[in-house]
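The authors assume throughout that readers already know how a fold can be written as discrete tokens. For illustration, here is how one protein appears when written out as sequence plus structure tokens:
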Amino acid sequence: MRRSEVLAEESVVCLQKALVDLRAIWELIGIPEDQRLQRTEVVHKHIKDLLDRMIAEEESLKERLIRSIAICQKELGTLCAELHVEPFREEGEITILQLEKDLRTQVELMRKQKKERKQELKLLQEQDQELCEILCMPHYDIDSTPVPSIEDLNQFRKHVATLRETKECRREQFVDIKRQIILCMEELEHTPDTSFERDVVCEDEDAFCLSLENIATLQKLLRQLEMRKSQNEAVCEGLRAQIQELWDRLQIPERERDTVAMAMTGSKAKVRKALQLEVDRLEELKRQNMKKVIEVIRMELTQYWDRCFYSQEQRHAFAPYYAEDYTENLLHLHDAEVVRLKNYYEAHKELFEGVQKWEESWRLFLDFERKASDPSRFTNRGGNLLKEEKQRAKLQKTLPKLEEELKAQIDLWEQAQSKTFVVNGQKFLDYVAEQWEMHRLEKERAKQERQLKNKKQTETEMLYGSAPRTPKRRGLTPSTPGKVRKLNTTAMSNATVNSSIRPVFGGTIYRSPLSRLPPSGSKPASSTCSGKKTPGAVRHGPNKENLELNGSFLSEGAIPL
């Protein structure tokens, strides 16, 4: 049982007890029955009025709760519709008081959400307006509903964030372009002369409208200034190149060049003017020194002839080179020819450098070939001979490979140019073949000369005999006079068989390296006919330097065949 029910029963018991106590008092007092009835009616009336008032108050409370519930439900429905959320529904059976409380709480929550959304919408609209004014873009179009939905707010937030990023990007772009524009204007010594240029250079950066149109106009202005700057730089570079060329032709001292060059760096208007004045001064000086200038140009022309492998016929074709009437017209003809050859060389530089590389390799190869045929190369020290042989072998492999590469390049060049590539007046491959043929003939000629020389030497030795020179050896005791005399005697006895003898080194006679038959077909005399070993026979044993070649003895001083 509920406490309220227990309390109600206690109230009934208390009321009954009170009535019993009243009747007892009335009995004790002796109040008549009619008065007791009146008094009882008064008690009944008071109690009934009190209870009626209490019931009425509770009924009024119930009515207020019901009305509040109805109002809250209606407002809650409207808020749910405005906030784009699902309508509120109570779960299970609840009392009127709890329902009213829940509805009232939900309404307050919905009101708060509505207020927050409207405040955020207002803030986003203010930011959007500010950014759109800076970027010159249209405002964000949002639904005209009083309260935006969560999705609408999310989209609006993303849009504002995008605008903010766009603003930062364009601002960075604007600042960078502005900096370059200011540098170009300073370089060109240009003063802003339009309202747009003044807005860019002079006004506050935050006040500049960062529209796409303005950014495009900024880029266009920068391109124009950079083009003017590039033109100025090109003109100045051309003037500097012209000055450098005139310096070289006029052979201006380095000290004077350095003084002028230090004051002519950059491409500003004053620098350009100074460069032009220097060109005019040098041109006047050139006219005063025409012969000297033309001779310098001819040296330069000769260098390009060499680089382009011009033949003598091609060089003689330029008749002004040999003229001696030093006039302005002759100078112009030489200048034009130098420019033509320079452009021709630069256009085919890779091919000419390849031919030059072959020429250098060929000269090095011929140098190695010459050293290889030099007998004195065997007296070298430090291993140079081995290094040269390795380099010569390497060149023998790389030269044909380089020729094949050049042949492929020349074929492509001839197809593109529709003419023949010549080196020193002939086709390159014919030129290479001619060089190889000349090298072969030279080797053949040298070989024949050596053979002829050896033949003459052999004939001389067969006729007169050889005279070897034996160097002194360390650790050997000098021969005694007696042994020398004995050796001379033995050598003389052996030499009587030969028809021709000659004394060498104090009468000592040696046999010719190539033995000949003695006259009348007799056998040569033996060196040991006496049965004893001669000094010469004894010396052949310990001296390892004397080697027997083709049946004859050669000393270290003999020239090998």
User: Anything to note?
Assistant: The two ends are 149 Å apart (CA to CA). The first strand starts at residue 422 and ends at 423. The chain has a mean pLDDT of 76.
